[in-house]
Structures are given as C-alpha cells and as structure tokens.
Amino acid sequence: MKLADVFLWPGHRLCQRLGLNPDADAGLIRWMFNTVFYLLIGLILVWIAVA
C-alpha cells in the first residue's frame, strides 16, 4: 500500500459505502470527502492546541 492510498482511504471508503465509484469524475467526489474529513481533523487539532 502506497502512502497516497493511506491518505485517500477515508474518501475511498465513504464512496464505496455510498455506492459511488471513487475513481469516476477524476476522483472529485473522493477529493471532496477527503477534504472535509481532513478539515475536521485539522480544526479539532487546532482547537485542542489553542484550548
């Protein structure tokens, strides 16, 4: 497993769970899910660091 596969795993798994092809549309749907996932993780980490 490549490092890129590890980072893309949350979006890939969510697309599979929703019955979508994660490789369709140049991976834009997977990209959106990954962006939201890592945004939430990043915001939580920043909130913990500031608090």
Automatic annotation (TrEMBL):
Keywords: Membrane, Transmembrane, Transmembrane helix. It comes from the Bacteria. The chain crosses the membrane at residues 28-50. This is Uncharacterized protein. It comes from Jannaschia faecimaris.
